[in-house]
Design goal:
13-stranded antiparallel sheet, outer membrane lipoprotein receptor (LolB), chain A, globular, mainly beta, 15 strands, 243 residues
């Protein structure tokens, strides 16, 4: 388990909306599909990872975001390169364990952005790390938008506490144990807030990433994608690019 998942409260910025997930409340029984899913994305080898770098890009009406990160999970050190609210270039490195002593822009803007982007990049792994997420295997169902069918996995966070309790994800997992489509409901409401495909799969070291997501945000077109993705293994100074 990484330092990132040991926080008392996990903040997730869902494309402009701040969600605070409640603290872990003890391990729950997980269906076998979760183990297969996380194995596919490289969870068993995550201990080999010294650092991950990536650029998160999101395009939607009224939204054009590009943020570059380097995350060292063993120390929970984050380096951010991007722009501030005024469009000025920013580069900052900080330890998340010392977030309370950081400037307001790091606490209120940069770190919530880091959590959002990190969840998008490593979503299946976070569902395994976050023990307060209840996970249900709902069986094989028709894909919401694509042709064919996939195994529907429902992930719901606790309704106790938190800024937006009950957040729910629906993952549609193919026969290769890769996510094909995803739906997100804020606060567990029936209204669909984000729908996205998972495509352009590439590996960097032992980790598998989906680098391209297309769909909708509140009914408007959404394109979210990652670039410059690479990992550095423990004991190595060489970045391994996603390919």
């Amino acid at each position: 388990m990484t330092i990132l998942t040991q926080l008392r409260a996990i903040r997730l910025l869902a494309l402009g909306m701040l969600l605070i997930l409640p603290a872990a409340s003890g391990a729950q029984q997980r269906p076998p599909i979760l183990e297969k899913l996380t194995k596919t994305y490289g969870l068993e080898s995550f201990g080999q990872i010294e650092a991950i770098r990536y650029t998160f890009n999101a395009e939607a009406p009224g939204l054009n975001v590009s943020r570059s990160w380097t995350w060292e999970p063993k120390t929970d050190q984050v380096t951010y390169e991007g722009k501030d609210k005024s469009g000025n270039p920013v580069k900052v490195t900080y330890l998340r364990s010392q977030l309370g002593s950081q400037p307001a822009n790091v606490r209120d803007d940069i770190d919530p952005g880091f959590l959002n982007d990190n969840y998008w990049l490593l979503l299946p792994l976070h569902f395994s790390w976050d023990t307060n997420a209840a996970i249900e295997d709902a069986g094989v169902q028709k894909l919401p938008q694509g042709s064919g069918s996939a195994e529907r996995v429902v992930v719901k966070y606790s309704s106790d506490g938190g800024y937006s309790p009950g957040d729910t994800w629906e993952l549609y997992v193919g026969s290769d144990d890769r996510i094909e489509e995803m739906a997100y409901h804020r606060g567990g409401t029936p209204k669909l807030e984000v729908f996205a495909t998972w495509a352009d799969y590439k590996k960097a070291g032992p980790l598998l990433f989906s680098l391209d997501h297309r769909g909708t945000r509140n009914g408007d077109p959404l394109h979210l994608f990652f670039s410059n993705v690479a990992v550095k293994l423990v004991g190595s100074n060489t970045w391994m690019d996603a390919r």
